[in-house]
Amino acid sequence: MSDNPKGTVLISANGENGRPGDLLWDQRNRDRAKHNTRGRNGRDSAFPTHGAPGGRLDVTMVFDSSRPGFVQMRGEGHLAGGSWEVAPDAEFLLMSRGGKGGAGGIGERGQDGAHGYDGKNASKHSRGEDGSPGSEGGNGGRGTNGGNGGPGGIVHIRVHEDNLDTLIAVKWDVSGGKGGPPGVHGSAGEGGRGGRGGSSYSWTESKSCTVQRMQNGQLVTATEYRTEHKSNPGGRNGRPGNAGWTHVDPLFPGEDGPPGESQITVEHADGSIVMYPSRYMLVVTSFRYEDENQDGINEPGEHIIVSDVVVTNTGGCPSPRTGSLHILINSTEWLDPVVVPLVVPGEIPPGHSVQIPGVLKALIRNETQPRKLGTLLNFQDLISLRAFSPRLQRDVPEFTGQLVLPITYKYPILMTTPRALDCVSRGDIVTFSWTVQNISNKAHGVTHNKASTHLSDPGGMFDLKRASPDTPHDILDAIGVIQPGEKKPIIVDFQVSELAEDFSTGSMLIKLLLADPINVNMVRSSNEFVLQMLDFIQQGLHLAVDVFNLSLTGSFMVSAPEGGAEYPVLSNYSGKSVIIMGNTMNYFQNGTREPWDLSDAAHMFELARQGTGFLVVAPTNMASLQEFEEILSVSGVSLTPRNTAANGDSHSAEVKDVKDAIQKLANPTTESQIVSVFVKKPVLRNLDKTLAKRADSAGRELGRAFPLRRFFIGLTLVEEIPEDIGNPDVADEKPKKSKKTPKPKAGMLHIIEGLPHNTKLVATTQESDSQSNSRTAALSDYMVAMLVHSLPFEDQCEMFWSLVTGGVGQDCVAAGVLYGGDSLGHLINRGDGDGDGNSEEKLVHAKACEALSWSIATQLASELTHFCATGGGGSSSRPMLAQFPLLNQFISSAASRPSSSSSNNTTTTVLINLLIHLTSVTSPLTFGQRLGQTMTGAGKRRKKVHKMLITHVTEPLLAKVDLKGSLGAAAPETDCDGDDIEQADDKANQKVKKSAEKELAQLVKDTETKTKKQLVQLRKANPHMDRVARAHELACHVLAQLTNTPGATFIDLVNGDGVGNVMKGDRTRKRVVDRDGYVKLKLRLVQRAENLVDDVAYSKDRLRGMVTSARKETETETETETETSTEQPEPNTAPVSPVVQVQRAEEDSEQSPLFIEAEKSVAVMREQEVLVPEAV
Question: What global pTM score does this model have?
């Protein structure tokens, strides 16, 4: 193991490479064989060895919060005692590759055969001898196959679930070794050359002879001489020897070694351990972008908006459960990302994709270098995303992947090259013209993105006719409104100056000036969206609504009438509904604030426990909202660990053990409680570990005892356990002073009751999908459903039973019917008339009626599944039905209604769908679950709840509707008289009743099958998802179908459900923090309170002058209206705003037009819009 120069820590357990076969041979076969002998055969190569397997590496990932950005690793097993650390720009590299296989050997070459002997030459006396034949060459030796690569080793990484993000700092390689290359067979030796045959021999011999011939008629004798040529032939060359043979059987490379194994062991807070084959691999698989003003042009100075970001986990284990990974746009030469990230949802299962709500922004930088005159801006760039871990200060390496989208930067208005004469004379009047064109898909000009052209004469050679005396050589022409695709000519006449010199050169400079697009249309769409919601509440639900403009006060504090003390405006809406626009607001040129930053968390905690519902619409900063929820959960009590009861807090106590704490907490109150449990330090044991173990145990006991309540457990140390614990008659004594700081002998578990699971604190993930910015545009069905979901549950139940027992369909419900009865008398019913004599009946929005049953089913299913999520049976002293506050309220509302005799098929189906939805989410889904529940008692609590639903809920509530009138066929008429008629009627009624019961049974069966099928599909898609999460996913699935909005989701902030799932601890009904975390939490609460005080004081100082003048004008207008009409009601004391809407459930008048105008002007002021005349 070693560190490379870049700081990356390399820990290696690679297997050794195999040895090769014979590659080199000695020179024994280099020389040719001698003495007419055959060449020696080459020797066969030896076999190579295989690569050795990789070793095993066992490490544990650690993160030290005191060293942000650094990641630590500890060795385990044979690496025990080793520890390493890497900085944000480095990483760990674990190598356990198999060794490479040895290369195949090369066979030895065969020896060449000996040459043949040469034959003797011929002579006069003998013929030449033949050469002897050459000897055969030796055969080549055998080569060998390559050796196999060794198998990869094992890399085992242990990590706590809170440190799963540290895995992005580790890379490992457990690949198998490569197989060795094949060897080569040795080549054959060449055959010897045959001996040369002896050469021939030639010679001549001279001979004389006597001859007679006639000469002149006479016989003459003469002697003649003759030469004879003679030769003996040479010998023949010997036959060459045959070459040896080479092996032809193929040789193969060695096989690659199989890959090794990586193991990720994740330790969970509850002590369970889960193993995975590899780490998570988060990759962005799709996203889209658009320009901020949506004119189709990516213009310098405006923002690029990235949305619909889809992230896929291509790895082998779920992603970190906390929102520790943030998504940003990659910075480029042109793009400057806005550091408001999206948060990657927790626990994305392997192979699953999620679409992350919200948007990312990046500012397109303005040009920094001047362009050549006459050239257009048309720059090509690439846009991509990155995932970043703030606490590790490093990117997720694989996140960007291959998804890089092209983007082009240009301006929405183009200007053509001007037309003019090239040569003119002194005194000539010259026409100069050019054209501007809008290439975007929106109108530009006076009302949007101001544009103008600027003509200047740098050399002062021309007299510009339309120039002002102050700037005689400059003309500024406003373009006006220019429609998409429109071209506008601009013509300027000027005269050549009489002072111009002959043959001189002048120039005219034209610039196209565009307004900064950042502030244009910044709040208009948001304001129209608010107005659409107001219109829906007033005209679709026929309910009253108050609007509070946070920009008018800078806080939620308002002055009481007649000069009374200030009070929180939300205190008027206890047990009602509050809708908060989640957009970030500019805070009087002093940075930005989220709406919840300006709220009193302790006060909102009290409101939430009293049943007030909070709906946050499209929060810009989801991470900030989730942090606020964590603060909100512990804001109900003081976190001072000691003597709280003595100081007057009746909801604080100190006890000796968890059982006493459970007894103290047995009776729920409308306020939070804190109970401190003392834990004595065991002998020879670590106190911190003991406290953590006791806290986990306490959390499980609290979950079993109070399934629907949530608790926060903090840990502190104390010097000793007081003797007066549990005895209120003994007064606390002051601790004795000591010069030395004593060592803590005990600890305390501070059990703080938070918000219950039925708290309604919900955030939407989508804004309006309307394409129109008009107030009269229809609100999206998604927002209709979410607004209905924000209504108080008690009112929802009363409205539902009015719908079911009223005998009307969901598409034609009159407001008088839906809000009828004394139970809803506190609502302002706008359905009975307008208060001006118009008694026309008003109908409630049809989609709102459909969303009503969805909302009730969602809340009841959440309550039931949370109750079943832990073992135990809740409070044994109370009936089971009484332990469900929402379900009990739903049944109580039904009990106050008479049985219906006019139900129709639609309303009966609505009731059945709701009831079967509840029984389905609590029933076993698979055969294995049913078998386990029957034979082993698994799911005992769920079984009891399921039985209770059928016996005490489903059957009694179905009796509230007339099944004969809604499901059965009408009774046939009869011609009988007297007793025959009565008997015939009885038979007909029995027949109709049986038909209705049969039809009801089939409807129940079909509905249950459909619901269970959806739950099974969710279970298959994510086996690690628990029943609570599946119920929430099913609610989102039904919401998407109901509103025809693909992928529609919402976030239950209190229960951690949905895209923003942050706290798995919520599943076990508790959150445990160590001592340092508890101290930091208290500091956060103190700091938040101080910041709130500073903000309130700052806002009062900034608004003092402006609000005074505005109030005087308002009072004058109010006095005038009062004189005109003495029956005019007073304006609402709770104002309306694009930031916070408060649905009013108290009885008072409609809104005054004053607040709508104030909303417009303040909306412009809040966003620093400069187009003030538009807002007046």
Answer: 0.54
